[in-house]
Design a protein that fits this description.
alpha+beta; 5 domains; Herpes Virus-1; SH3 type barrels; elongated; single chain; nine-stranded mixed sheet; 30 strands; Ubiquitin-like (UB roll)
């Protein structure tokens, strides 16, 4: 096994070989020291975001074959960080001017609003552009801001956290300085452009700040606001006959859900339509405050609630004694409609639903749900002083968090492994059988009978794990792949029994079992009789005869049996001249002729199978097969990730030129179907350029017609109007999630898009990749 070690800056990458899955991290550090000349104490190794610690193994971190581990030289990183540190530190909080000097109280008689009567006003939340009812609490001179000498809006909040209100929710923002000890919170900041309704505001107002208290949000305390965000309370309702196109009014609109009641916004009327006496329509563009903050073509739902915008200094002052002058806004909670007598687990305590004791509720910073402190399990006596609080469901178990410098905590899966419960220090070995697959064949399911599309007879792989990755024989070590209730799909002929006979087109095969493989043994002497169970039974089911677990059986028509893919290993050269000289070679399809029990040379009962070749492609040891392998350019396949560990393999690793490969032959039906698939004509033109590369043509087709969602060959493909191919089930899943765009290019397909199956493309893919649709 080998891995890649890369410096943290990415400038140098080296391959470290001769490793095992059980290699200790401290042993890995020594190998890194030999290559990078970095002492183990200065090495900080990272893999998938985790810092690797001594005492653990590569298996503990799930390090796979050819994976990359980053090495950060701690000494160099410390030096670089110290060099990059600025010489002068940022000024401390004590050096900042006191916030209490930013504004100072003067005679409340200044300004255009009356403090002594707590004049009713409308104030704008610049974060969303909506207007809310409030009352005037105080007037102060505002400190000059850095921009254009305008007054700066100072926000105050409990614990230096100003609140920001959204449509129906209350959110918290961080990092705003405190002003005084009044525990007031700000929802607004200085706006670069005044709203349309405030263009006539006197210039003398620019050095004044108003202290406002929201009517519906008393928990926010007193908020300091600039003059352009404050105006007299709206009180005059327009009739439809009084409205004119281009007039600026205040309307109720819900930006998120236009069919429901929302907040109040300034709006410019764009069209008036009176269909009948009772059917009228008003369309506006919502003005959010800035010059470009406009939402066009909005339909007003509440035509009897269109208010005139009052101008500062012209409208009569209103006080609470004159009435409430309240407007209807969208409910804070869509579930209980903000009914104080209704229990609700969405806007109140999510345990009991009660709305009592609001001061005893905690808001989870993760799920944003409220909890009474006495409803928690276990209950709390007081409100905690922590800045952040998480409910029991959202809170992470600190005992499960692995911090830097700590050892890993074994997962439940690894804790149940036999290797975790043994005291043996034996290494698993450094062979390729222990590294695991780096990819998996998805073109056909694991229970596929017959050839694998794109894998011609004579294909040879250097390692068994590559045979598994190609899908020809899935087990890494086992000789038979199958299911005892279905049949066998493939087997490997590796010469494990000396009394096996291999005649090329026909050979005898010995079943599995009868050996003591306890512990970590891979091979062992025969110590008991074999039985017709498990994989032996699976291989017997491929025979065209009723199952007989006592005397065996012979097929009535051996060609009618289930096909078995046969792979010959170079280990079988000691008993067979038909085995390859190197690696593992796919020799085609065989059928089980008969099976029977007998006493082997070992002295114990074994099950024998006679298999006979039944494949249209020539065998690789025949002159025809050798010639075909040359035309296809078949060589011993070595993964591109595998380094050359021994000399003399460079010739085998070379990718054969396309001139040597035999061109892929299309049938007349396939050519006709390709011409018929007009929507994908451009894609087929690209794929047909690879016909001269033989089997690579199928790889190109698989790549071109891969579904962007499931990353597999498209099944029941839907060719969209934007000419992308997606699995029908994947597109349906996207529509169920209310995503009505193309997964590839985000072209809007529409909610009512009709999914038409491209039957021509499906028929072509079934011919190129037979069996791939099984199990999809």
């Amino acid at each position: 096994m080998w891995i890649q070690v890369r410096t943290i800056d990415g400038k140098e990458t080296r391959t470290i070989e001769d490793l095992s899955r059980l290699t200790k991290i401290e042993s890995l550090r020594l190998k890194i020291q030999e290559i990078f000349n970095v002492n183990p104490e200065q090495q900080r190794l990272f893999y998938r975001g985790k810092q690797m610690e001594d005492g653990q193994t590569l298996f503990d971190y799930n390090v796979g074959l050819n994976d990359i581990i980053h090495n950060n030289n701690s000494s160099s990183s410390n030096n670089s960080s110290s060099n990059n540190r600025p010489k002068s530190c940022s000024p401390s909080v004590d050096n900042q001017p006191s916030t209490s000097t930013r504004s100072f109280l003067i005679d409340p008689g200044i300004g255009l609003y009356k403090v002594r009567i707590n004049e009713l006003v409308d104030c704008r939340d610049v974060s969303i552009g909506a207007w809310f009812e409030g009352s005037l609490e105080n007037v102060t001179h505002a400190a000059k801001g850095p921009n254009n000498n305008k007054p700066s809006t100072v926000s105050t909040a409990r614990g230096s956290k100003p609140n920001k209100r959204t449509n129906g929710k209350l959110e918290i923002e961080h990092g705003t300085p405190t002003l005084d000890n009044k525990s007031s919170s700000a929802l607004n900041s200085d706006c670069s452009e005044p709203s349309t309704s405030q263009k006539d505001c006197p210039h003398s107002e620019e050095d004044v700040s108003y202290h406002i208290k929201y009517d519906d949000y008393p928990e926010n305390g007193v908020v300091e606001m600039s003059p352009e965000d404050v105006r007299p309370r709206a009180r005059t309702v327009f009739r439809f006959e009084q409205l004119q196109v281009g007039q600026v009014v205040m309307v109720n609109y819900n930006i998120e859900t236009p069919e429901e009641r929302g907040f109040w916004y300034d709006a410019e009327i764009t069209s008036l339509k009176e269909v009948s006496r009772t059917n009228k329509e008003v369309r506006v563009k919502i003005l959010l405050g800035g010059p470009g903050d406009i939402i066009g073509d909005c339909k007003v739902l509440f035509l009897d609630e269109i208010y005139q915008i009052e101008k500062a200094g012209e409208a009569q002052s209103l006080s609470p004694a004159d009435g409430k002058f309240k407007r209807k806004s969208g409910p804070e909670c869509k579930h209980c409609k903000a009914d104080p007598d209704t229990e609700c687990r969405f806007c109140s305590c999510c345990v009991c639903g009660g709305k009592q004791d609001a001061h005893m509720q905690l808001l989870c910073d993760e799920c944003n749900m409220a909890f009474h402190i006495y409803c928690l399990n276990p209950p709390l006596a007081t409100i905690p002083d922590d800045e952040d609080w998480y409910c029991p469901t959202c809170k992470n178990d600190t005992s499960e968090v692995v911090k830097a410098g700590e050892k890993l905590k074994a997962s439940k899966k690894k804790a149940k492994m036999p290797s975790a419960n043994t005291e043996s220090q034996r290494d698993w070995g450094k062979g390729m059988a222990c590294v695991g697959r780096t990819k998996e064949c998805t073109i056909v399911p694991s229970n596929h009978y017959g050839p694998i599309p794109g894998v011609p007879v004579g294909t040879t792989w250097k390692f068994r794990v590559q045979v598994s990755e190609a899908g020809v024989h899935r087990p890494h070590v086992g000789g038979i792949h199958g299911r005892s209730n279905d049949g066998s799909y493939s087997l490997v002929l590796a010469g494990g029994f000396e009394d096996e006979v291999d005649r090329g087109d026909e050979f005898t095969y010995t079943g599995s079992g009868g050996r003591d493989l306890s512990g970590n043994k891979r091979i062992g002497e025969h110590s008991f009789d074999q039985t017709l169970t498990h994989m032996n039974r699976a291989l017997a089911l491929n025979c065209d005869a009723p199952l007989n677990d006592k005397d065996g059986a012979e097929s009535r028509n051996w060609r009618a049996g289930k096909p078995v893919r046969v792979v010959r290993s170079s280990k079988g050269r000691r008993i067979s001249k038909y085995a390859p000289e190197e690696g593992n070679r796919y020799d085609g399809i065989y059928k089980v002729v008969k099976y029977w029990p007998e006493i082997g040379k070992c002295g114990f009962l074994v099950w024998r199978y006679l298999l006979r070749r039944d494949d249209m492609e020539p065998a690789p040891w025949t002159p025809e097969g050798v010639e075909r392998s040359k035309k296809l350019g078949l060589k011993v396949q070595v993964s591109a990730a595998i380094p050359l560990m021994c000399e003399g393999t460079a010739e085998q690793v070379k990718v054969p030129g396309t001139k040597e490969a035999e061109a892929f032959q299309l049938s007349e039906q396939q050519q006709s179907l390709i011409r018929e698939d007009e929507p994908n004509r451009k894609l087929w033109d690209e794929a047909l350029c690879y016909l001269g590369e033989g089997p690579n043509f199928l790889k190109k087709v698989e790549q071109i017609f891969m579904c962007v969602c499931c990353q597999e060959l498209a099944f029941q493909p839907i060719t969209t109007v934007c000419l992308h191919n997606v699995c029908k089930t994947c597109l349906q899943r996207s529509f169920r999630a209310e995503v009505y765009t193309c997964p590839a290019c985000r072209h809007d397909l529409g909610k009512d898009y009709v999914m038409i199956l491209n039957k021509t493309l499906q028929q072509l893919l079934d011919q190129f990749f037979p069996g791939y649709s099984k199990g999809r």
